[in-house]
Design goal:
The protein has 241 residues and is of the alpha/beta class. The chain has a single domain, classed as Rossmann fold. 41% of the residues lie in helices and 16% in strands. It has 6 helices and 7 strands; from the N terminus they run E-H-E-H-E-H-E-H-E-H-E-H-E. Strands 3-2-1-4-5-6-7 form a 7-stranded parallel beta sheet, with helices on both faces. The radius of gyration is 17 Å and the shape is globular. The termini are far apart.
């Protein structure tokens, strides 16, 4: 079975991604800074040998290198990387006007949402280049396509993920590696109880974890073999407004 490394896997979106990939024959290494949440996701998705839980702070390059090396030793290759670590309000960061933020806050948001993608992508690429195959999908956000008030830093970080992925797709395409992003709308999250804003789109419902999971599974599949450098909008039309 092909192996996918998933960061931020303990989230609701991570759970949707894990379910979708496991159902389609992938082995999923579910990583999260909170091992207990990663373990819960693997349990729900069916457990070993289809899924495994590993603790990983995706902003810590030493930890990233260690996990990537462990997976390579056990499985030979990492066939796909799914960068789902990130967030803002889920990190306990409230919405605020940019003028009221601090450089320390900027660093935290940019590190969690963008630098984590750089660390993990940089770590898996040598193996994918050697194998001459691989796929990378990073979870961005509709705010990365259309900036939102009181989310300027988050919007900037997610926009950076999208444009970085477009550039990288052009660099690694000749090696048989595809790089894409997904932009969910106001998506399902563990910390949300109800959110009327999530229904403010033409489909009149929030983006579910399963919506994102199915989109990831598609982009990693052979059905998307000729798709790279794209950002798949899974926001229910949120970005139309």
């Amino acid at each position: 079975m092909p192996l996918a490394l998933l960061t931020g896997g303990g989230s609701a979106i991570g759970q949707g991604i894990t379910r979708a990939l496991a159902a389609r024959g992938w082995t999923v290494a579910v990583t999260d800074i909170r091992l207990d949440l990663a373990q819960e996701v693997t349990r729900i998705a069916g457990g070993a040998p289809t899924t495994m839980a590993l603790r990983l702070d995706a902003t810590d390059r030493d930890q990233v290198n260690a996990v990537v090396e462990e997976l390579r030793e056990s499985y030979g290759t990492i066939d796909a990387l799914v960068n789902a670590a990130g967030g803002m309000r889920g990190l306990g960061i409230a919405k605020s006007d940019f003028v009221d933020t601090t450089p320390e806050l900027w660093a935290r948001i940019l590190t969690v949402n963008f630098q984590s993608v750089l660390h993990c992508t940089h770590a898996v690429l040598p193996g994918m280049i050697a194998a001459r195959r691989g796929a990378i999908v990073s979870i961005a956000a509709s705010r990365g396509l259309r900036g939102g008030p009181q989310a300027s830093l988050y919007s900037a970080a997610k926009a950076a993920v999208i444009v970085f992925s477009q550039a990288l797709a052009q660099e690694v395409g000749p090696h048989g590696i595809r790089v894409n992003t997904i932009a969910p709308g106001n998506a399902e999250a563990r910390w949300k109880k109800s959110d009327a804003e999530g229904e403010r789109n033409p489909l009149q419902r929030a983006t579910s974890a399963d919506d994102v999971g199915k989109a990831v599974a598609f982009l990693l599949s052979e059905d998307a073999a000729h798709i790279t450098g794209t950002c798949l909008d899974v926001s229910g039309g949120t970005t139309l407004h």
